[in-house]
Write a structure and sequence with these properties.
By secondary structure, this protein is an alpha/beta fold. It contains 8 helices and 9 strands. The model is unreliable at about 115-120 (pLDDT under 50). Pathway: Cofactor biosynthesis; thiamine diphosphate biosynthesis.
């Protein structure tokens, strides 16, 4: 029997969303759509629905390390995607895990708020992400409200936030869609001064798990060997299609339809 070529493995360190719109389920579905294999390690458990989050619990550090170690010992990890961490201790845990994966691209989705606005970590988590985790990351994918928190610029523009954050990270993708503009503007900034702007049509409604979908698709494209700008473009195009085809199974936000999709 001929053994098929293995799909690239992406280690996902994210929280669990019981309604399946965000978190690890979003990671798994988005990575499957990129022809990658998701290796999920749970960092936190949440109590949330499509309306908002009401509670969360960050897992014990030893449990998260044990999950990651089992994955790393068995599978050839080609990229790492971070979602909800929820505590400063979990930031340090991720750094310990990444020391065992030198040279592996790391996509940091700085999850600080749920789609409904509820907090998914204390204020010091954002500081730890910026100061400790960004330097170890290939790219971070904050939306503009998250970028303002991370940059400590409550009214800052995307350009102003990028100027404050780029000393900490090589690439920064600040996503739009949180204003009332007719087009959504997504901006990729790089420390070398290069910049790429991506626009797409605004879709009606709000979405639960769009950030997780984007970051996971991006990690998958990097695992497949795409350059950063090309991977960002592919991930943004894919994410837009998942939102276009989104479903509303609950009382709140739409859930992106990540599978099945025409990927061409």
């Amino acid at each position: 029997m001929t053994t098929p070529t293995s799909r690239p493995v992406v280690l996902c360190l994210s929280g669990h969303d019981p309604v399946g719109g965000a978190g690890l389920q979003a990671d798994i579905e988005a990575l499957l759509a990129q022809q990658c294999h998701a290796a999920p390690a749970v960092t936190a458990l949440t109590v949330q629905d499509t309306v908002d989050v009401s509670d969360f619990r960050v897992l014990d550090r030893a449990w998260v390390l044990a999950q990651a170690e089992a994955i790393i010992a068995d599978l050839p990890v080609a990229a790492v995607k971070l979602g909800m961490l929820g505590s400063v201790e979990m930031v340090e845990t991720v750094l310990e895990i990444m020391r065992r994966l030198p040279g592996v691209p790391l996509v940091c989705d700085p999850v600080l708020r749920a789609g409904g606005g509820g907090s998914l970590g204390k204020d010091e988590v954002g500081y730890a992400l910026r100061e400790r985790l960004f330097p170890a990351s290939t790219i971070a994918t904050p939306n503009l409200p998250e970028a303002r928190i991370l940059a400590e610029l409550p009214e800052g523009t995307a350009d102003e936030c990028a100027e404050r954050l780029l000393p900490h990270i090589e690439h920064l993708l600040i996503t739009g869609g949180h204003g009332d503009e007719h087009e959504v503007h997504n901006r990729l900034y790089s420390r070398d001064g290069s910049r790429h702007d991506f626009t797409c049509a605004r879709l009606p409604g709000s979405y639960h798990g769009s950030g997780c979908t984007l970051a996971s698709a991006l990690a998958g494209r990097l695992a497949l060997g795409q350059d950063v700008a090309g991977a960002v473009r592919s991930a943004l195009d894919y994410t837009w299609r998942t939102l276009r085809d989104a479903e509303a199974p609950g009382r709140g936000q739409y859930i992106p339809r990540r599978l099945p999709l025409d990927l061409e």
